[in-house]
Amino acid sequence: MTEILRQKLSDSRAARFMVLGVVALTMFCGYFITDVMAPLKQMLESEFGWNSSDYGFFTSAYGWFNVFLLMLIFGGIILDKMGVRFTGLGACITMLIGCALKYYAVAYGSGLEGTIFGINVQVLLASLGFAIFGVGVEIAGITVTKVIVRWFKGHEMALAMGLQVSVARIGTTLALSGAIPIAKYFSNISAPILFGLALLCIGLIAFAVFCVMDKKLDASLTETNETAEEPFKLSDIFYIIKNKGFWLIALLCVLFYSAVFPFLKYAVDLMINKYNIEPEFAGNIPAILPFGAILLTPLFGGIYDKKGKGATIMIIGALVLITVHFLFAVPLLNVWWFATALMVLLGVGFSLVPSAMWPSVPKIIPENKLGTAYALIFWVQNWGLMGVPYLIGKVLDKYCVIGTKIVMEEVTKDGVTKMVEKTITLYDYTLPMIIFTSFGVLALIVAFMLKAEDRKKGYGLELPNIRK
């Protein structure tokens, strides 16, 4: 009995997996809002007069404050100085504020006329809300990652990170497959955003539950007389940025995710334009991508925990990414089943890299510096999440418009249903997919460089995570 009382709370498998469940729920709610506008691109164009450049501008807003105001870096420093509870609650509240502004812009902003700095007022308001939300969800992401390291170090850390990613990806799947049906059911394009706002409230409550459990972990650490790590100092930033392994992980992250998340923002439109899938069903095929990650990321994370081979797993994932994007680019088999097969394969690649990449960071950077290290990685990643969607939107408008078509759509307003004529812009996605393929090629090169650096420095990326 004495031995049991001297255990840390995190030594309890039930306790640490309960913590994983509640923080993963918070990220599920955040990821829904991150991707809920992706299926609505065509509706935004037909109902509000947005074009691909407007949509690309809005999507790029996700990284504005994180990149230019260094909010992610400040968030990482706050995380290491103030802890996971304070930082996580602040991030959840920031997500709510940003989502509320985005909802207002979409629900009521269409009546606002004029432009600011040449940008439509509604687009600018929605973008501002998305930028604020982006600060919250990214800081929440690094906080939850550090939570997992704190609770699972020496245990099933890669599996836990994989499970967290899986639950979060359910939010992405729900957004991609459910946004258009929700909007059409309520005859309101803002309805999916309002639904996401309600989810964020649930996510805030879930994180509050975690805070209670984390306080109990602190108490158990005191009881076991465990020595606390040396506190974070601002000078530790130099330790991080001088580490070559850290920068290789950061580069791999930005290149890999630049080929995935911006792709998801346009994937529904790709399905409509290249594969002639009806808009109501077009989101179901991209939804396979996060669904594949839901199933496979924990599996690959478990393999990394028990067998190692983290750098090798990242190389294989980059190869899969290149293959899929290249096949999306070529004018070959423009039918729904081929698109579905490619999305399934992309789900495999999307599972491989994150399952090994995130658990590898604690092997390179000490735990007391992890919040700042993850924040710097996310900051680098946000350059891609900000710039690539904007680039793709500009490329589509300038080089890829191949015509328009008129469609009749049933619209219900004030209890009256009528058919409305709408003009839809048609795009050729060959060039954007070649751009995404190039990011995969660069990611593969960096993954090989990381494996070579691991052999040189002995980080242990190819070794198992679970301590015997």
Descriptive report:
This protein is mainly alpha-helical and 468 residues long. The protein has a single domain, classed as MFS general substrate transporter like domains (Growth Hormone, Chain: A), CATH 1.20.1250.20. It has 19 helices and four strands. It has helices spanning 2-5, 13-35, 41-48, 52-60, 64-68, 71-82, 84-108, 121-152, 157-185, 191-223, 236-241, 244-258, 261-275, 279-282, 288-307, 310-329, 336-364, 370-399, 430-457; strands at 115-116, 119-120, 401-413, 416-427. A hairpin with a 2-residue loop joins strand 3 (401-413) and strand 4. Helix 2 (13-35) packs antiparallel against helix 10 and helix 13 (261-275) runs parallel beside helix 18 (370-399). The longest helix has 33 residues, at 191-223. The two termini are 23 Å apart.
Keywords:
two-stranded antiparallel ribbon, mainly alpha, single chain, Growth Hormone, Chain: A, 468 residues, disordered N terminus, 74% helix
SSE layout and pairings?
Blueprint: H1 2-5, H2 13-35, H3 41-48, H4 52-60, H5 64-68, H6 71-82, H7 84-108, E1 115-116, E2 119-120, H8 121-152, H9 157-185, H10 191-223, H11 236-241, H12 244-258, H13 261-275, H14 279-282, H15 288-307, H16 310-329, H17 336-364, H18 370-399, E3 401-413, E4 416-427, H19 430-457
Antiparallel strand pairs: 1-2, 3-4
Helix pairs in contact: 2-8, 2-9, 2-10, 4-8, 4-18, 6-7, 6-8, 6-18, 7-8, 7-10, 8-18, 9-15, 9-17, 12-17, 12-18, 12-19, 13-18, 15-17, 16-17, 16-19
